[in-house]
């Protein structure tokens, strides 16, 4: 745990699944990745149960297979949890997502994973740039978190920013001393440069960053 966010490293590619406290027992889950393929589909539900936490929503920073693989397990255990993703990446989840996921998995030479990301739960809301998460659900605590649409890794990549507590959940846009790859379908080097420029110019350097992989809890200015 770092700052106000707990992190579980789950899924076959070690995604940093974030558990964000809201109010009381309510939490927000970002990028659930644990699944039967990686034999860790129970890690997140067991963590939530052990800490008496109830997710009110799942935010997907983007739709790549490694970040959405745990979505079915979350919905099975917590069917009331709403699913939020940017509209541009919405085809990567839902009952008809297999074709879109196959394209990314073929690029990654990881087609064996396709059954884990076929017929996923669909979105309840579409993330929009500049909106607070409280625009979608009336849960105290969500008003602290706003959406930054940061295309580049995918067309619908988003970050979540908490200005009051100086926290940034950056998905695969910002990593420690690095940034997300842009060579998958929907990626764009030029869009990534624009998104990174926006983040580093708008967000204070002492903001703690929680990327989608590897090191987390570092200050944004450590990347400058």
In terms of structural class, how would the helical and strand content be classed? alpha/beta
Principal-axes shape call: globular
Order of helices and strands: EEEHEHHEHEEEEEEHEE
Fraction in helix: 10-25%
Gyration radius over CA: 16 Å
Describe the structure.
The chain is of the alpha/beta class and 224 residues long. It contains 5 helices and 13 strands. It has helices at residues 43-50, 65-68, 71-77, 98-107, 189-202, and strands at 6-10, 15-21, 26-30, 54-59, 82-86, 125-127, 145-149, 158-162, 167-171, 174-175, 178-179, 208-211, 218-219. Strands 1-2-3-4-5-6 form a 6-stranded mixed beta sheet, covered by helices on one side. Strands 7-8-9-12-13 form a 5-stranded mixed beta sheet, with no helix packed on it. It has a two-stranded antiparallel ribbon with strand order 10-11. Strand 3, helix 1 and strand 4 (54-59) form a beta-alpha-beta unit. The chain is globular, with a radius of gyration of 16 Å. The mean pLDDT is 96.
């Amino acid at each position: 745990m770092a700052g106000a966010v707990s992190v579980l490293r789950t899924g076959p590619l070690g995604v940093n699944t974030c558990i964000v406290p809201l109010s009381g027992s309510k939490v927000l889950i970002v990028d659930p990745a644990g699944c039967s393929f990686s034999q860790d589909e129970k890690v997140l539900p067991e963590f939530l149960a052990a800490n008496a936490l109830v997710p009110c929503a799942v935010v997907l920073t983007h739709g790549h297979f490694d970040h959405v693989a745990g979505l079915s397990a979350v919905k099975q255990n917590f069917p009331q949890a709403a699913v939020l993703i940017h509209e541009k990446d919405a085809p990567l989840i839902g009952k008809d997502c297999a074709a879109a996921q196959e394209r990314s998995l073929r690029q990654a030479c990881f087609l064996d994973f396709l059954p884990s990301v076929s017929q996923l739960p669909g979105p309840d809301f579409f993330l929009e740039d500049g909106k607070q998460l409280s625009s979608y659900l009336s849960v105290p605590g969500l008003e602290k978190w706003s959406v930054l649409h940061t295309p580049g890794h995918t067309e619908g990549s988003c970050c979540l920013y908490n200005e009051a507590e100086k926290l940034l959940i950056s998905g695969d846009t910002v990593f420690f001393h690095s940034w997300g790859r842009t060579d998958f379908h929907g990626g764009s080097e030029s869009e990534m440069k624009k998104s990174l420029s926006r983040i580093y110019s708008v967000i204070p350097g002492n903001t703690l960053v929680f990327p989608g992989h590897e090191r987390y809890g570092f200050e944004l200015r450590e990347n400058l």
